[in-house]
What we know:
The chain is α/β, with parallel strands linked by helices. It has 17 helices and 15 strands. Strand 7 (222-227), helix 11 and strand 8 form a beta-alpha-beta unit.
Amino acid sequence: MTYNNYSLSQLQAIDAAHHLHPFTDHAELREAGSRMITRADGAFIYDSEGNEILDGMAGLWCVNAGYGRTALAEAAYEQMKELPYYNSFFKCSTPTPVLLAQKLAQLAPANINQVFFGSSGSEANDTAVRLVRRYWAIEGKPEKNIIISRHNAYHGSTIAGTSLGGMKLMHEQLGGAVPNIVHVMMPYAFELAEPGETDDAFGLRAARAIEDAILEAGADTVAAFIGEPVMGAGGVKIPPASYWPEVQRICRKYDVLLMLDEVITGYGRTGEWFAAQTFGIEADTITTAKAITSGYIPLSALLVGDRIARTLVEKGGEFHHGYTYSGHPVACAVGLANLDIIEREGLVDRVRTDTGPYLAQMLAERIAPHPLVGEVRSIGLMGAIEIVRNKETRERYAPSGSAAVVVRDHAIANGMMLRATGDTMILSPPLIWTRETIDLAVERILKALDLAAIDLKGK
Ligand SMILES: Cc1ncc(COP(=O)(O)O)c(C=O)c1O
């Protein structure tokens, strides 16, 4: 590849001159220079200087099948030679989105049989908002329009995604949100449970915040509730067992649609194909993207439940919505090949029965006792480590989020890619990880925690 002719400093200079990065303080990045990731294989990524880094984040929660899958490259190559692009507009279709939609209907919960394709999680959530509002309009209830979401939720970075999400800093820069979206508390017991409140009692209280919002607005004005089964970017917040059944009960009681955002949890992360199956949730829409192709090529799929699909198809007329790349044949070919790998290698079962429980055990036995760690939690191959100044009182280091960045920087410098969100370290590795990979990760995380503890002494 021609970029091999460039030195790191040349690439960094060009990056700084021309490339605006996502979610980045540009002045700060340009001062420091980007780390250039140049290749990857299996569970590891490599930078331009030859450093090997164990990828604890599966890229950005997406490379579930791991790196170096030539079958995915070949699927793209063959499809590009045969038919690189054709659209799904004006009464046309191409074979791969047809077959992928069928496959997704087979894997999804029983009430879901239809799929709308896009290119990103944000786009899919835009589609979901359009669709639930359209549903109620077709049903003669256009005033049922409000969508309830949660503080600290992440649903993407388009205007609808940002509006749906509950990220304060994103809202501050939005300059006008999509109307009729309200936010309620998140199910985050570590910080929000009252002293002495059990996990179950807290879960019910957090769910009933949704009921309060419905009653305040009036049930005849509420279209839907949207939630990530496990809040991901907000800090791997795993709700208490009581939460989702109560949310489901409330949605049914007030005839409010239930939208799940499984952009992170979809395709095996929690030990089932979808977290809807892990938690036993019956959803009206499930937003998916990322791991549908293991991140090898952009693709999203909004899975649409029978209730909405029936109304849309039988009574809706034309739905004025779609993207140039809805059902892109190459992306869908890669999606089919990727799901085939995940299925053939039994990666979802492995997470449920082996690596998921082993990660939970190692976090509890090896990481939780560390003086900087206030709590560990995980579900499947999705984990969090809370960084605290005081284990007993759960006091944090000031300013908020500063300590986790110290841990993250040591982790990366010691060959372990971890993400810091606020005061939480996040782990969401490729599903190809084995017990040996988890052992290696634990050693590297412990080293980072030890080095961070030295830096943070007296702070
Ligand atoms: C739960 C969730 N929804 C939506 C998105 C947005 O996806 P994308 O970045 O592909 O637009 C993300 C991205 O991380 C996500 O985690």
